[in-house]
């Protein structure tokens, strides 16, 4: 993208918002900036750059658009049905003493809490009282992590969850809002973590990084895949988003468990 004003906007995203723009594809930044341009009725990058200069509060709105996440519980049911099968094997295997999961790019907490609810249900079903479950949920955005810790959600985020499950694991605050119960909160810990700059979590049975790496350049993606490999125990699972695929060296580091659902298992590398 050689438009001078697009380059200036990109530069400001880096300097003013402290977002590492070089790690993202130009096409992604372009799509997100275009969303704000339409809303601000700016016909080109020059107009939008001038609008940003005159309206500094627009930078915050641009940041929210750049880091936007679609948030629902058990979004994409086919993936979660498959994950349920994986967790059922773990829960019913009496040699398994603990389940450790890393939810990378966890946003406002629907993924880790949703996994905790699913595992809790399976533990009850199979009378497995003594299994230790720890889900480490990480994100770069401090503000969104605070929201996740609070664990308050609105009713439309529960469209994939049956009402009896909602009633069991959430307290109804009012007509629209629910809050996750303490027994589920105890299973999840939230941490600020930079996927690119920091090392991986360790000793994980599963790493989920869904619809995050798609926004990074290919060389960064490859490094992240190998970080996830390092994070996992032998035979541990890596779960990606539906449009994300392994490439480079990582294709020899994992085998498909369910290729359609982008679920892979760690292989030992010689």
From TrEMBL:
GO terms for biological process: methylation. Its EC number is 2.1.1.80. The keyword Translocase does not apply. SMART domains: MeTrc. Residues 1-255 form the CheR-type methyltransferase domain. It catalyses: L-glutamyl-[protein] + S-adenosyl-L-methionine = [protein]-L-glutamate 5-O-methyl ester + S-adenosyl-L-homocysteine. InterPro entries: Bact_Chemotaxis_MeTrfase, CheR_C, CheR_MeTrfase, CheR_N, CheR_N_sf, SAM-dependent_MTases_sf. It comes from Methanococcus maripaludis (Methanococcus deltae). SUPFAM superfamilies: Chemotaxis receptor methyltransferase CheR, N-terminal domain, S-adenosyl-L-methionine-dependent methyltransferases. It holds the Pfam family CheR_N. It comes from the Archaea. GO terms for molecular function: protein-glutamate O-methyltransferase activity. It is an enzyme of class 2 (transferase). The keyword Metal-binding does not apply. Keywords: Methyltransferase, S-adenosyl-L-methionine, Transferase. This is protein-glutamate O-methyltransferase.
